[in-house]
C-alpha cells in the first residue's frame, strides 16, 4: 500500500480538501462507525477513479468507536477497538501546533493512500494528537470516535478544523479550493480561514468582504434530517476552550450566537454551495434552515468496493 511516489501526492496534485469526522477506508481500520464514514470513503474512492485532485482530512482514532461484546445472557458491553496504524499507513514528519485551553497542542499526521482504477492517488491525512509534548487529556483527543462529553467533542472538532487547515499548509497545500465540509463537525476550518485572512488583526477585521472570501472557498454537505443530530456547544465552553478572540471571530462569522455555537449554521453561513443527500432531504433541510439555498446530491456507493466478485 505504501510507500508511494511522493510526487503523486504532492501539493501540485491536490486542489480540493474533503474534511470528514470519519472516513471508511477499510473494514479493519476503525476510522468510521456508520453511513457518514462509508459515504466519505466512497466519495474519495470515486475521486481516485476519476482522477479528481482531492485530499481527505480526518482524525486517526487509536481506539476506534468500540467493539461490541455479548455475554451468555445477551448483555452487551463495549471495549476499545485498538489497532496498529503503522500496518496501514505512513507516519509523516510534519507537525503543527494549535491552541486549546490556552495551551499548545501538537498534532501529527499519517497518510493513507487510495489508488484509483487508472492509478491516480488520493491521499487521506489522519491527524494524531498522541504526541509526547501534549497533556494526557489532549493526547486522548484522537483516541475515540464519538466518545467523551461535549468538551471532548468540541476539542476534537477543533483539531479537525483548525489542525486540518494548518496541516495542509504544512504539507505544502497552500491554494486549496474548495474546502468541502462533510457534515458540520469540520466547520471550525472556517475559523482557521478567517485567521489566515485577517492575520493578527482583531475580530472587527472580519468584514463582509472577509466572509465572502471564506464562502468562495467552502462547500458543505449536510446529512442529518433531525435537529438533535446537529452539534451545538455553549458559548462559554467555546470561549474557554478556544479563547476569547476566536469566540469573537466566530460571532463575526455567524452573527449573534444566542449562547450556542451551532456547527451546522456556521458551515451554512460560510459556504457558497450546500447540498443535502437526497431530494427529500433537500426539502427537509430547507425547512430546518430557512433562508439557506440547499441543493441535493443523492448518496451513492462506490460499486467496485461493494459489489461481490461473482456479481461484478
Helices and strands in order, then pairings?
Elements: E1 16-20, H1 35-49, E2 54-59, E3 67-70, E4 76-79, E5 90-100, E6 103-115, E7 121-128, H2 136-139, H3 150-170, E8 179-182, H4 189-198, H5 208-215, E9 218-221, E10 232-234, H6 235-242, H7 244-254, E11 260-262, H8 263-269, E12 273-276, H9 279-288, E13 295-296, H10 303-306
Parallel strand pairs: 1-2, 1-8, 2-7, 8-9, 9-12, 12-13
Antiparallel strand pairs: 3-4, 5-6, 6-7, 10-11
Give structural notes:
Helix content is 31%, strand content 23%. The chain is built from ten helices and 13 strands. The protein has helices at 35-49, 136-139, 150-170, 189-198, 208-215, 235-242, 244-254, 263-269, 279-288, 303-306, and strands spanning 16-20, 54-59, 67-70, 76-79, 90-100, 103-115, 121-128, 179-182, 218-221, 232-234, 260-262, 273-276, 295-296. The strands form three sheets. A nine-stranded mixed sheet has the order 5-6-7-2-1-8-9-12-13. The longest helix is centred in the middle third of the chain and has 21 residues, at 150-170. The protein is globular, with a radius of gyration of 19 Å. Residues 1-11 have low confidence and may be disordered.
Amino acid at each position: 500500500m505504501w510507500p508511494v511516489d511522493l510526487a503523486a501526492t504532492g501539493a501540485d496534485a491536490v486542489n480540493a480538501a474533503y474534511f470528514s469526522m470519519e472516513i471508511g477506508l477499510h473494514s479493519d481500520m476503525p476510522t468510521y462507525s456508520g453511513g457518514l464514514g462509508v459515504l466519505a470513503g466512497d466519495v474519495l474512492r470515486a475521486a481516485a477513479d476519476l482522477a479528481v485532485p482531492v485530499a481527505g482530512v480526518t482524525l486517526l482514532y487509536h481506539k476506534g468507536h468500540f467493539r461490541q461484546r455479548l455475554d451468555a445472557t445477551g448483555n452487551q458491553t463495549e471495549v476499545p477497538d485498538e489497532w496498529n496504524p503503522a500496518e496501514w499507513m505512513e507516519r509523516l514528519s510534519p507537525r503543527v501546533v494549535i491552541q486549546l485551553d490556552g495551551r499548545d497542542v501538537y498534532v501529527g499526521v499519517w497518510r493513507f493512500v487510495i489508488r484509483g482504477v487508472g492509478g491516480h492517488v488520493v491521499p487521506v491525512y489522519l491527524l494524531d494528537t498522541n504526541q509526547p509534548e501534549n497533556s494526557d487529556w489532549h493526547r486522548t483527543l484522537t483516541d475515540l470516535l464519538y466518545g467523551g462529553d461535549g468538551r471532548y467533542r468540541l476539542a476534537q472538532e477543533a483539531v479537525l478544523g483548525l489542525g486540518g487547515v494548518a496541516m495542509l499548509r504544512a504539507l505544502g497545500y497552500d491554494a486549496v479550493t474548495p474546502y468541502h465540509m462533510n457534515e458540520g463537525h469540520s466547520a471550525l476550518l472556517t475559523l482557521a480561514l478567517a485567521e489566515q485572512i485577517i492575520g493578527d488583526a482583531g475580530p472587527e477585521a472580519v468584514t463582509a468582504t472577509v466572509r465572502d472570501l471564506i464562502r468562495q472557498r467552502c462547500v458543505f454537505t449536510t446529512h442529518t434530517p433531525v435537529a438533535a443530530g446537529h452539534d451545538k456547544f455553549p458559548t462559554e465552553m467555546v470561549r474557554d476552550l478556544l479563547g476569547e478572540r476566536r469566540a469573537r471571530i466566530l460571532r463575526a462569522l455567524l452573527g449573534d450566537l444566542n449562547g450556542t455555537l451551532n456547527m451546522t449554521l456556521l458551515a451554512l453561513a460560510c459556504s457558497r454551495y450546500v447540498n443535502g443527500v437526497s431530494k427529500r432531504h433537500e426539502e427537509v433541510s430547507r425547512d430546518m434552515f430557512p433562508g439557506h439555498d440547499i441543493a441535493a446530491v443523492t448518496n451513492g456507493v462506490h460499486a467496485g468496493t461493494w459489489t461481490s466478485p461473482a456479481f461484478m
